[in-house]
């Protein structure tokens, strides 16, 4: 048998259009965590001169000093970029691309990932390519489901506006189609009461808007809760208006002039509050949980008028956690 050396590995990568990710079980067993990832060498002058390498697949292998053995993950031995484990990508960027050199620096997906880690948090939030769910490989790019508060229930999954699905995958989502208004039920405005922080809320949107006032305006915060029995607590559009910059609904001031949005809300709390509400909504309603699971590994996006679709990370991250239970 012939065991490949580093030059043979580089040649195989170019000829097969794949990239090997080299890991060391010996380093791991010895507690040498900094050297578990082996960055490899750029031994192929053709690729070096070309300056770009776009592998179709990635293969993780264990290198024990002499030989290579494949490593499986989630039942797979070959991976698309989006399927590479999240932590593995991060280690590659942090260790193997420190000086923008080496084989991974020729790969556009990894170059973009490195660039993303250097830009501001705001920019990374807006970049669909680098959202957290993509980095963790929680969805498949070729299946997209889009939803919003008034989504059309008629089209089959993958056939609605802004959606896509390969023809041979349509039958995989028959169960999803059985749930009426499944798209609308994914939206934050869907009325499905849940309990969170000792109060009951009609929708995720109600809690999210209320949370803007939780620290400094408790009375107004509680007026969004169904416990208060206010009109505001039952009407999504009214709740959005009350939490808006002006606090007006159809020309009527809903928010007292002395009540302002908590200063820390958009600095640190907004994402946490939203994620908590989404989790409460889907874990406390059996049908909603079934709907979310039935989307399988589809990319979930939210329709925003006159703007690009928003990738809904919170839903896909929750879906992944629910499927692991």
What does this structure look like?
- There is one protein chain.
- The chain has 325 residues and is an alpha+beta fold.
- It has 15 helices and eleven strands.
- It folds into three domains: 113 residues, no CATH class; 101 residues, no CATH class; 87 residues, no CATH class.
- The strands form four sheets. It has a four-stranded mixed β-sheet, sandwiched between helices. A three-stranded mixed β-sheet has the order 5-10-11. It has a two-stranded antiparallel sheet with strand order 6-7.
- Strand 6 and strand 7 form a beta hairpin.
- The protein starts with 5 loop residues before the first helix and ends with a helix.
- About 3% of the residues have low confidence.
Distance from N terminus to C terminus (CA atoms, Å) equals 43 Å
Strand order across the largest sheet: 2-1-3-4
Largest sheet: 4 strands, mixed
The portion of residues assigned to helices is 25-40%
What's the count of strands? 11
Number of domains: 3
Overall average residue pLDDT:
87
Tell me the Rg in angstroms. 24 Å
How much of the polypeptide forms β-strand, as a percent range? 5-15%
Number of DSSP helical runs: 15
Derived structural class: alpha+beta
Poorly predicted regions: 119-129
Shape: elongated
Order of helices and strands: HEHEHEEHHHHEHHEEHHHEEHHEEH
């Amino acid at each position: 048998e012939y065991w490949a050396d580093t030059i043979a590995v580089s040649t195989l990568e170019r000829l097969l259009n794949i990239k090997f990710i080299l890991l060391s079980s010996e380093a791991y067993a010895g507690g040498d965590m900094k050297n578990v990832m082996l960055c490899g060498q750029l031994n192929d002058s053709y690729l070096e001169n070309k300056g770009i390498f776009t592998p179709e697949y990635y293969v993780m292998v264990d290198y024990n000093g002499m030989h290579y053995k494949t490593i499986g993950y989630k039942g797979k031995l070959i991976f698309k970029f989006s399927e590479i484990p999240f932590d593995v990508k991060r280690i590659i960027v942090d260790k193997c691309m420190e000086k923008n050199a080496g084989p991974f620096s020729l790969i556009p997906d990894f170059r973009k990932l490195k660039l993303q880690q250097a830009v501001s948090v705001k920019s990374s939030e807006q970049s669909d390519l680098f959202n957290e769910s993509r980095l963790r490989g929680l969805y498949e790019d070729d299946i997209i489901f889009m939803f919003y508060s008034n989504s059309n229930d008629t089209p089959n999954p993958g056939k609605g506006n802004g959606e896509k699905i390969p023809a041979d995958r349509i039958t995989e989502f028959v169960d999803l189609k059985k749930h009426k208004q499944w798209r609308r039920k994914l939206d934050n405005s869907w009325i499905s009461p849940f309990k969170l922080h000792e109060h009951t809320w009609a929708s995720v949107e109600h809690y999210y808007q209320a949370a803007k006032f939780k620290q400094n305006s408790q009375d107004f915060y509680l007026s969004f809760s169904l416990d208060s029995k206010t009109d505001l607590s039952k009407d999504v559009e009214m709740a959005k208006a009350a939490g808006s910059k002006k606090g007006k609904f159809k020309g009527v001031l809903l928010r007292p002039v002395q009540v302002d949005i908590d200063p820390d809300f958009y600095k640190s709390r907004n994402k946490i509050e939203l994620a908590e509400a989404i989790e409460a909504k889907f874990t406390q309603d059996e049908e909603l949980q079934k709907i979310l699971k039935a989307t399988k590994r589809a990319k979930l996006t939210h329709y925003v008028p006159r703007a690009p679709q928003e990738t809904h990370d919170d839903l896909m991250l929750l879906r992944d956690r629910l499927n692991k239970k």
